[in-house]
Amino acid sequence: MSDHSPGFLALVAQARARVAEIDAADLADALAREPDAALIDVREESEYAAGHVTGAEHLGKGVIERDIEARHPDPQQPLYLYCGGGYRSALAADALRTMGYARVVSVDGGWRALRELLPTDGT
C-alpha cells in the first residue's frame, strides 16, 4: 500500500515470513472448523467501535502482549487476528508467536475484506 512507509512495510514483511496467514475469504470456514478459536480485532478502539466482525473480541495491538495471557491463557488455542488490512495483525501475530502462542494466524485483507464477507456490528 502506497501510504505506508518503506520501513514499516519491511517490518511487516519480516513478520509475515514468520507467521501463518489466512485469506479473509477463508476465515469463516476456518472458524467453523475450530469452534474453540477466538477472533480478535487488533485495531484501535475507535476503529472497533465504528464496526467490527460480529463476535470479534477487541484487544488492540497496543495492549495485546500485555493482556493476551489473562484473556487467552492457553497457548494452543487458535487465535485469528485482524486489523484494517492485515499489516498490524501480522505484527501482533508475530509478537504472540514469540510469546509462545503456537496457533496464531493473521487475517490477510483484514477489516476491509471481512466487512464484505461476514456479519458485522457497529456503525
From TrEMBL:
Domain of life: Bacteria
CDD domains: RHOD
SUPFAM superfamilies in alphabetical order: Rhodanese/Cell cycle control phosphatase
InterPro entries in the record: Rhodanese-like_dom, Rhodanese-like_dom_sf
Pfam families linked: Rhodanese (PF00581)
Domain Rhodanese intervals: 33-123
Name the record gives this protein: Rhodanese-like domain-containing protein
Provenance organism: Spectribacter acetivorans
